[in-house]
């Protein structure tokens, strides 16, 4: 049985009994969809943000860096960097200190880029939204694709020997070793701390999630089924590259884009095409480029964006071809 | 006591600076809050996430935006 069935009953009750909207109208459909999805996703977010607070406490990014820098990994480091990218929270505010911190610790450029590619694409919030809206099968495929994108993209960029295109001052920075904090906190205090952190984060992103779901709900209720099929056909070879390239300069958080994307897919936009658009919006953007320009010379930036875009297009094609 | 907010100039970092100033004011401290956007300074501290709240040169809050109460609590530990 669907574990979200009670929420479904609740959403039906609110929309059709409390508000008294006809079940068959566009408005009723939209409101019911909105209540059901937002409740389901907020509950999932509360749970996963709690667990991620625990993970972050025991595995701060500084520790992950030290792990990567601790020995030679013979290529496995691309994989690890990509895995770490999925479990660390990412804000573009942090991309510069992260980049410098990795390079400074002696982690290869390609491995650092693996991390930078995967990190914005997969985080706990994106995973919850994917799972809540698309189901687990597509979520797992998405996470694997994003990781492969990071591993492969970082590997190719690493092989291109682009180190000379990293801003020169980056190589000269020496950081002091941060003393490892040794204040043992009580277990009960920790549990409280995790809950606070998880709750705060959920509170902070809820408005964006609700906004995304609201737009998605309007599309769900008012746009006729199959509406987009007339415009974007799955077998149109240009749809995926166009979707990706148009999306590169744009920026939006994964949180807001995924619900909208789900509704578009429901109305006939091929999944791979929508996914290529979403990954390019979330992973690459003009603001991100401007930030990275401070540590990368033009040529490295172009390679970084170019190769990531190409990989996103490939993922889009693969999803259109194999995922139904 | 030296209180610094370090950030890459992103909105979250500016917000932390504003909140820290407010916290210092509410605690009635006679300290200026310094706002640093030089990324090198962050990395030199050994921190890899931004924004950073540093007291006496030591990072105490990194990578997220706390509320005023939490900042006040943190600062109080150093008085």
Automatic annotation (TrEMBL), chain A:
It comes from the Bacteria. The keyword tRNA-binding does not apply. Its main location: membrane. It is a multi-pass membrane protein. It holds the Pfam family ArsP_1. The keyword Transmembrane helix applies. GO terms for cellular component: plasma membrane. The chain crosses the membrane at residues 33-55, 76-103, 109-133, 140-158, 205-225, 237-262, 268-288, 300-319. Keywords: Cell membrane, Membrane, Transmembrane, Transmembrane helix. It is found in: Cell membrane. InterPro entries: DUF318, UPF0718_permease. Belongs to the UPF0718 family. This is Permease.
TrEMBL record, chain B:
The keyword Disulfide bond applies. Keywords: Disulfide bond, Redox-active center. InterPro entries: Thioredoxin-like_fold (IPR012336), Thioredoxin-like_sf (IPR036249), THIRX-like_proc (IPR005243). The keyword Repeat does not apply. The active site is at residues 10, 13. Disulfide bonds join 10-13. SUPFAM superfamilies: Thioredoxin-like (SSF52833). It comes from the Bacteria. Residues 1-75 form the Thioredoxin-like fold domain. PANTHER family: THIOREDOXIN. This is Thioredoxin family protein. It comes from Candidatus Portnoybacteria bacterium CG11_big_fil_rev_8_21_14_0_20_44_10.
């Amino acid at each position: 049985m669907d574990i979200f069935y009670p929420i479904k009953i609740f959403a039906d009750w609110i929309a059709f009994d409390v508000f008294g909207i006809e079940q068959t109208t566009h408005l009723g459909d939209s409101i019911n969809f909105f209540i059901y999805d937002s409740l389901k996703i907020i509950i999932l977010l509360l749970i996963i943000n709690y667990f991620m607070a625990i993970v972050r406490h025991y595995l701060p990014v500084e520790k992950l860096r030290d792990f990567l820098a601790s020995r030679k990994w013979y290529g496995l480091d691309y994989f690890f960097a990509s895995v770490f990218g999925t479990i660390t929270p990412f804000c573009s505010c942090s991309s510069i200190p992260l980049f410098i911190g990795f390079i400074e610790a002696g982690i290869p450029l390609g491995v650092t880029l693996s991390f930078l590619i995967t990190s914005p694409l997969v985080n706990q919030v994106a995973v919850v939204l994917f799972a809540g809206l698309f189901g687990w099968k597509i979520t797992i495929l998405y996470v694997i694709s994003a990781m492969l994108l990071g591993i492969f993209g970082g590997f190719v960029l690493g092989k291109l020997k682009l180190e000379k295109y990293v801003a020169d001052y980056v190589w000269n920075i020496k950081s002091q070793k941060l003393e490892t904090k040794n204040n043992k906190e009580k277990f009960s205090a920790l549990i409280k701390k995790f809950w606070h952190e998880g709750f705060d984060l959920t509170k902070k992103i809820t408005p964006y999630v609700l906004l995304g779901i609201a737009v998605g709900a309007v599309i769900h209720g008012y746009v006729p089924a199959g509406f987009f099929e007339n415009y974007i056909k799955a077998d149109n070879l240009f749809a995926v590259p166009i979707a990706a390239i148009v999306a590169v300069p744009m920026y939006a958080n994964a949180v807001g884009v995924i619900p909208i994307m789900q509704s578009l897919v429901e109305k006939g936009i091929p999944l791979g095409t929508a996914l290529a658009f979403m990954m390019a919006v979330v992973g690459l953007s003009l603001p991100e480029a401007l930030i990275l320009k401070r540590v990368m010379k033009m040529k490295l930036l172009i390679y970084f964006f170019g190769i990531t875009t190409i990989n996103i297009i490939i993922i889009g094609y693969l999803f259109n071809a194999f995922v139904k | 006591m030296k209180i610094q907010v370090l950030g890459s100039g992103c909105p979250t970092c500016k917000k932390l600076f504003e909140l820290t100033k407010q916290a210092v004011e509410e605690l009635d401290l006679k300290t200026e809050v310094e706002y640093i956007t030089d990324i090198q300074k962050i990395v030199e501290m050994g921190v890899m996430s931004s924004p950073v709240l540093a007291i006496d040169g030591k990072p105490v809050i990194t990578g997220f935006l706390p509320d005023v109460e939490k900042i006040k609590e943190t600062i109080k530990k150093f008085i």
